[in-house]
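Convert to structure. Protein one:
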Amino acid sequence: MEKNIYSSPESDLEIGDAEDSGLASRWSRVWASLIDALTIIPITIPLMYFSGGFDGILDGVQPSLSYTLSIALIGTVIFLVIHGKIMVRDGQTWGKKAQNIKIVTIDDEHASLSVLAKRYGFYWCIPQIPFVGQLINMV
């Protein structure tokens, strides 16, 4: 019998779970990010307090650009001290390790140092752009 070229294709259309795909769930990512934030907050909040970062907040004065950039740089260094070794070795931060997820490339291979630098560099540098950086980061 002849095959009808206008018939719909026959294929198995089963939809797999997110767990089957190997991707981390949104909630595990949120919890990992929260754990990472909790590892750095006990260091950065006292740093901001003792450097005068909270002095003008009650008066509505925004910190200077140089202060904001210096605190961002110090926060980045602190993050790298806390998470750097485990990120390069395993592709995980402490929060990701606690949630049993890791950063991999699209080919499901271990993320190299350059991939990690691009990934975190984008997320850290964009918010530092005056006026629009926070908006771009939120989007």
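Protein two, convert as well:
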Amino acid sequence: PTAELPPFPGLSPDRIHVPHTQAECEAAARDILAVGVAGFDTEARPTFRAGEKSTGPHVVQFALTDRAYIFQLNRPATIPIVADLLSSERLLK
């Protein structure tokens, strides 16, 4: 299982991208789709009261072997692009 995988050295901060503008989001999506394979993860702000419902996810991360993209969903430009990436049949997730 996991112990059989080769070690992954991680990414330096300069290889982690947080697109802000529509153009940056579109460029990130093109890059992710061009690679064709990505790991993804979602994050949400924690809840602190019993019964409190999460309003997340708030962040979606796509990791390639040598770089990663973090989409902050409070930015309007990110939501349709992330939805397209998650539903894309061209991207193995």
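DSSP finds two helices and four strands in the chain. The two ends are 19 Å apart (CA to CA).
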